[in-house]
Amino acid sequence: MSPVETASTAAPAAKEPSQARKRAVALAKADPREKECLVRAMYFESNRSSEAGLLGVGTVVMNRVESARYPETICGVVGAPRQFASGVLTRPMTEKTLPKIEAIADDILDGRRNAAVGSAKHFHTAGLRFSYTNMHYVTVAGGNAFYLKGERPERRRIYEEPNYQLAAVSEPAATPLATASSAASTSSASFASAPLAFAPQPSAPTNPAFDSAAVRLVRNAPMPPDRPLDLDLPKKTAHAFIAPPKTDRRLAALLPPPSPMRGTIVSE
């Protein structure tokens, strides 16, 4: 009789987690086929070189055993349709890594868990992306991404108890203003105590105007006739911007030679 036939795949109507765990552990220690189902799930679903990954898959199996939505035995959870790898209970296993996996399975039956996985009951191959909004990832181990399915409790508390952050006011509002003089004094005091972002901007400093005999002499000095317009511009550079005179030599070179007029004498 196969391990799937020894376990019922129907979930009970109600289940107490601690009692369900105790019954599953007792059954696994009494029936070696229950432990084999746990070993097979860890063998085919996780990277066998990762102890954290093997422990994570075993934690998910035991979390499902304790849940009322899944069967109450290990073989019932592992053999449920379309939940674990295809042929997880029938495919052959090599003897090379079985001792390590069996030792981790014994630790799981004794109460050891992957703390990062926590109460997660779902995982998929790491690197895949899904558009569902109810998948809350907790850790990645052994080539699998473990996640909680549904709304997080802390998010529900945030919706019920919203937290608002208000800007602090430095000073309370003043009494109503009575006269124009008091208004002017209050406004000047408010500007003096206002934050820097609201304070009036100081006026830009102005350079003093120089008006002396030396300045007027330099300003009104006549410009030499051969000096460029820009005092800082060299004379050669200023002449470089002057357009060259137009000549007809290039145009004459392109035109054909003139033909002699009729009736003229051409000397040989």
Radius of gyration computed on alpha carbons = 47 Å
DSSP strand count: 3
Distance between the termini: 130 Å
User: Biggest sheet, in brief?
Assistant: 3 strands, antiparallel
The level of helicity is: 25-40%
- Tell me, briefly, the overall form: elongated
What's the tally of helices? 11
Notes on the protein architecture:
- By secondary structure, the protein is mainly alpha-helical.
- The protein has helices spanning 3-6, 17-30, 32-45, 51-66, 74-78, 98-109, 153-160, 180-193, 213-219, 235-240, 249-254; strands at residues 122-125, 135-141, 144-149.
- The protein has a domain at 3-114.
- Helices cover 40% and strands 6% of the residues.
- A three-stranded antiparallel beta sheet has the order 1-3-2.
- Helix 2 crosses helix 3, helix 3 crosses helix 4 (51-66) and helix 4 (51-66) packs across helix 6.
- The longest helix is centred in the first third of the chain and has 16 residues, at 51-66.
- The N and C termini lie far apart (130 Å).
- One of its GO terms (molecular function) is hydrolase activity.
- This is Cell wall hydrolase.
- Pfam families: Hydrolase_2 (PF07486).
